[in-house]
């Protein structure tokens, strides 16, 4: 059985968990608090970041984008027409472009601020930078997310899913990052009904259920977080 080192509110970890759910894989999960920088974890992944996949034979794959590509290469063909990174070079290029958009650009402009300031800092010791959130960072993330929602609305007004006619890694990357912001109540869904309808569709998928069960001790999610018809 494969093993995944992850943190429940790491959006990159959520991306891989959704992929695994769509592929029907049930690996063993190990919760890893990346800010603790455990020596045992650093020995596996010197970068100290989640997620990390460890195959049965001990082969280690680190990083959300790398793991996604590896899973497609090793399991993708078995999914047939449900493959999440299809064979067409043009389709693959567009999916990869949008994966990069959400795993990097969205993360740098939105989810990294919100997750670090509102979640991680609750658990990080004061001596290591923990404590109250920096509201300037949160305001920046809230401003930036509107631009990204507009782009999602634009794409989904012209396509069935973000990258085309079929569900793909692009949708999962976007939904994983949005889900962390949504838990915190920082997604202005009413401003972009087309983006909201797209998110409701992916949120309703079986592979998303474990994401919706995640909870932060002492911090309940926004009221619509688990509502599939919100």
TrEMBL record:
Pfam families: GST_C, GST_N_2
Alphabetized InterPro entries for the sequence: Glutathione-S-Trfase_C-like, Glutathione-S-Trfase_C_sf, Glutathione_S-Trfase, Glutathione_S-Trfase_N, GST_C, Thioredoxin-like_sf
Highest taxon listed in the record's lineage: Bacteria
PROSITE patterns documented for this protein: GST_CTER, GST_NTER
Positions of the GST C-terminal domain: 88-225
Domain GST N-terminal: 1-79
Record's signal peptide: none
Assembly and oligomerization: Homodimer.
Protein name (database record): Glutathione S-transferase family protein
């Amino acid at each position: 059985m494969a093993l995944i080192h992850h943190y429940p509110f790491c959006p990159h970890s959520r991306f891989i968990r959704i992929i695994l759910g769509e592929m029907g894989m049930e690996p063993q999960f190990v919760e890893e608090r990346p800010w603790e920088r455990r020596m045992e974890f650093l020995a596996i992944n010197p970068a100290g970041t989640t997620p990390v996949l460890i195959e049965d034979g001990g082969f280690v794959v680190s990083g959300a984008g790398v793991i996604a590509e590896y899973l497609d290469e090793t399991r993708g063909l078995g999914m047939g027409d449900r493959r999440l990174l299809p064979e067409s070079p043009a389709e693959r290029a567009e999916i990869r472009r949008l994966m990069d958009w959400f795993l990097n650009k969205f993360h740098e402009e939105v989810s990294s601020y919100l997750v670090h300031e509102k979640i991680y800092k609750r658990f990080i010791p004061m001596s290591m930078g923990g404590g109250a959130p920096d509201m300037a960072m949160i305001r920046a993330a809230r401003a930036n997310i509107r631009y990204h929602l507009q782009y999602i609305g634009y794409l989904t007004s012209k396509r069935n899913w973000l990258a085309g006619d079929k569900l793909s890694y692009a949708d999962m990357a976007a939904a994983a990052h949005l889900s962390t912001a949504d838990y915190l109540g920082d997604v202005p869904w009413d401003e972009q009904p087309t983006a909201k309808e797209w998110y409701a569709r992916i949120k309703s998928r079986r592979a998303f259920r474990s994401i919706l069960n995640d909870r932060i001790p002492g911090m309940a999610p926004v009221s619509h977080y688990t509502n599939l018809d919100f």
